[in-house]
Structures are given as C-alpha cells and as structure tokens.
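Peptidase S1 domain-containing protein (Corynebacterium xerosis), 337 aa
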Amino acid sequence: MKLNRSTSIIAAMITVGATFAAPAASAVTVGPGSPIRMPEPGAVVEDGRHVRTGMCSTGVAGTVTDAEGNQHRVMLTAGHCVNKEGHEQLPKSTGVIYAPTPEGDVRIGEVGPASFFLPDENDVEANQNILDSTLNGSDYAFIELDDDVDATSVSHSVDEHGRVNGEGAAMTGVVDYSELQPGEVSVDNFGQPICSDGSRTGRNCGVQIFRVRNGVWAISHLDKGDSGGNAYDPRTNQVIGVNSMAIGPVSRYQPADQALQDAYGIEDGKVNEHFQVEESTEPHSEFRTIGQDMAADEAWIAENEPAEPAPGSSIPQIPGLPEIPLPNIPLPELALR
C-alpha cells in the first residue's frame, strides 16, 4: 500500500546520489490522514521536494506513556511505509519522515518503534505459512514527532486529485479490543462501521467483518498511498487503527491498541490510560497531493533521464511515461480457520 516508483510489486526504488537543495524548514500541523514522504538515502531534492520518494499517510497523533512511565509524542503509520527492519524487498529508508507542503518537504520527525512482517522469499517454511502471517503479522510504526511540529486530533484527507470527501472528525480515543492470540479469529466486530482517511483515495467508509490480533478486516476501499492513514469508528470517533493493505474489496487495518501494547509495553485493556490523543482540533496544513508529486516526478525524469535514441535514429525517442507502479504484497485468498 506504500506508493513509490518501482518496476516490480515490492522492488526497491532507485537511489539517486545528487542533492540540489534543502527541504523546507518551517513547522506544519499534521493529523490523522495527512500525507507523508519517506525519502531513501541520497534522494534528489529539487525546489525543496524529494524526487521519487515513498508516499504514505498518517494515523492518530498523541502522547503515550510507556510501561516505565516515559512519555513519547508520536504519530502512528504503517510499518511497511518506513521499512525500519531493512527488508531487501522494500525501499531503503533514512528513518526521517517529511510532510509535503507546497513550499517543500518539511521534516516532522523520525521513526520510533516499528514492526512489519515480510517473509523472506527464500524461506520456504515462512512462505508456507503466508496465510497465518497475513492474518497475524504486525504492520505499524510510530513517528516520534519533532518539538516544533504541531499535531491535531482531526481526521481529514485530500485525495490524489485534490478533492475532499466529508468533514474532519476529531478523534476521541482508541478502540481497546480484547487481545487475541496469534491464530485466533473473532467476529465480535461483525457489521460495525469503519471509516478511513488516506492521501490517495481520501475518505472511505465500509463494514467490518472480522478481526485478528494484528488486523481488523472490512469491506471497504483502500489503494496504494493510503497506507498508514487513520481508520476509525464513525459512531464514536475512536481510532480503530491504520490502513495496512487491500485484497480487492476487502481491506485490512492494523489495530492501534495492539500496536501501542506491543511497542510500549502497555497491558491489554489499559491503552486509553496510557495514550492521550492530541487535544488540538486545528485544521491540517495545506499539503501537496500524490497526483501533484507523481506529475512532478514524471517531469523531472523526462528532463533529467531522457530515453536513449532508438537504434538507427539520430532523434531521441522519449516514450510515454508509464503509470507509477504501486507495490502490493502478494497474498493468498482469505480463509477463516
């Protein structure tokens, strides 16, 4: 669900060594559903914008108190967006996260605790258990926000075309599910509504069908670039989790409560005692859209990486640029055990 320029399903992005200009330095206001950029080491920066970089979305922001009593001001996103584990199949990451403002990319923080399970393609045993890992594998990351970055509780999104669907919704807390063990499946959420905000398709709502330890599954729409965006219960405005992946009309969301428990040692049932959603209800800053950045990348490539002349021709032939492939994780058909 992470969006980047790639020639295969989850191939690494191309690393370019030169740097032309520094990203923007002014502070921003981010919130659930805001877009983020995750540049690779050595990524080109032009007019303050990282060229050909990963594009994802953000979940809820707030302050978490860990098991030792230490406080952390964080923002949730998807683990596969940041690749903290250094999976070879995914793009490399600097660990620094940026918000794409019209003036350029603004640093908002660094990656903290994160987890994303991706089987080694050479590990036969792991791939034989791909269904279990799909249902139960974690997919979360916490961005440790910089002090000069403002955050809001309002879940809001603008899609790739600059359209807004629905009003902002201020988050009130986290849905604290009863913890499931790996392999357990529960339908206690069957039929309940779910809405999500992401920077590719914007606001989408659907119906939950079941849940597992690290996944709430629903009939709802997600696309690449929505990953890490905020999923919530529209009846209570409580956070359910973050957008993780989609298989056709069925989408998966990493539960926020399980991510907080695993990352910060919080006991089951006590998540809202340890996590305080940002109190601010200020609007998000204005950001560039995925569509704008894709168009800018194509223009940069056409200017800086022209196609080789066709054999026997003295006139360079520049083919039409293909649509930027959107990596997805190959998964088997879902089946409840």
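The first helix runs from residue 79 to 82. Residues 5-21, 312-337 have pLDDT under 50 and may be disordered. ok done for today
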